[in-house]
Each structure stands twice: as structure tokens, then as C-alpha cells.
Amino acid sequence: MGVPYLPVVGLAGSDLAGRREDMRMAPDPFGGGFETIVVQALRPDVALFHGLRADRAGNVHFGYPSDNTLIAEASRRVIVTVEEVVDALSGEDRAGGFLPGILVDAVVPARHGAHPAACPGAYPVDDAHMIQYAESAASDEAFADYLRRTVFETADHQEYLDRFVPEGWGQAGQLPLREAGD
Questions:
Q1: What whole-number distance in Å separates Cα of residue 41 and Cα of residue 33?
Q2: If DSSP codes are grouped into helix, strand and coil, which group holds residue 47?
Q3: Are β-strands 23-27 and 46-55 bridged in parallel, bridged antiparallel, or unpaired?
Q4: pTM (2 decimals)?
Q5: pLDDT single digits (tens) 150-172
Q6: Where in the chain is the domain with CATH 3.40.1080.10?
Q7: 23-27 and 35-40: which strand pairing?
Q8: Minimal CA–CA distance to 51: which of 60, 42, 43?
Q9: Cβ atoms 174, 125 nearer than 8 A
Q10: Per-residue b/e over 57-95, b at no fewer than 16 CB within 10 Å?
Q11: What's the angle, vertex CA 69, arms to CA 67 and CA 59, rounded to 5?
Q12: In this predicted model, what pLDDT tens digit does every residue of 79-112 receive, in sequence order?
């Protein structure tokens, strides 16, 4: 959005402004006679999303309503991985969770790129893998081992798919994907 801060009226009266360096109490600039909390805007270097499909102009269809556009507008760079890249999104793809290509710096095709999380409209959460992930988060050592096995010792995305995505996983509810040019 490009603003330095945002008012958050719902937090007025709480003690957050006294506890957080990124929040302050501020008077109504229009003379309304009340104070509200203002929150320092975040400016991420990179936002990374995963969507169902993108077209060659970088427009992205997520398949679910989201705040991704707000996050993309605040970020310096936006990278989106998608289940598929098509020549042009359909009108149906532009409804719901849509991110215009003008906000996108790069699109990367990555089938099952949200794994082990879900990609709404394509596949569910991989419950067994997510349990392993959650259990590994119990300690720094266990999580380091999880990262070593699933990230650092995996050569590329295809090897990750071969090693960690069960054969046929998610296909029952899988969205029928199109070939580029369809």
C-alpha cells in the first residue's frame, strides 16, 4: 500500500501501544477528539505465494479468497509458485482469489508446491507429513533434522516430490488442470 502506518481502531484502549515498539497512540488527525493505535506498516523484501494457476502475463488465480493482494502491494518483490502456467486466465479464474500480474515479479511452475500444506481446489493437507512437521517443531534439534532431510539434502523440487509426496496423493479431489494453451 505504500503507507508508513495504519490506524487500528479495534486496538484502542488495549495496552499494546505500551508494549510494542511498532505501535503508538495517536490523536484523530481530523479533530474527532479520540486517540487510536497506529501500527507501523510492514515492508517485506519478498512475498512468496502458491496458487492454482498463473498466465504468461503473471496474473495469478489462487482458488480461494485471500489477503494476498494486500501483502503483495506491501512487498518489494513478489514470487508466486503455481500448479500450472497457462497462456491466459479465464474469466472464472479472475474471480475470487486473484492477483494481478502488475504486482508479480516472477512465476514458477511447481506442481504440489504447497506440500505438505493444502492447495485449495487442487489437493488437501498431507496429514501424515504435517504431523511429522509439527512433531519436529518441538525442539531446535528435531526441526534442524527435519530441514536437513526435507530441504538441504533434497537436490530439487522433483526429488522432493519423489521422496515426500505419496504416489497418488491428493488426486481424489484434484482440480483438473489444463495444458498451456488450453
A1: 24
A2: strand
A3: unpaired
A4: 0.76
A5: 999 999 999 999 999 988 776 64
A6: 43-110
A7: antiparallel
A8: 60
A9: no
A10: ebbbbbbeebebbebbebbeebebbbbbebeebeeebee
A11: 130
A12: 999 999 999 998 877 777 899 999 999 999 999 9
DSSP character at residue 66: -
- Asked if 122 contacts 165 with a C-beta cutoff of 8 angstroms, the reply is no
Q: Can you name the CATH fold of 43-110?
A: Glutaconate Coenzyme A-transferase (3.40.1080)
Which helix or strand (DSSP H or E) is residue 54 part of? Answer: strand 46-55
Q: In the numeric block, which cell numbers belong to residue 126?
A: 498431507
C-alpha cell at 9: 481502531
Give how far the C-alpha of residue 76 lies from the chain's centroid of Cα atoms, to the nearest Å.
Answer: 15
Rounded Cα gap, residues 140 and 147, in angstroms: 10
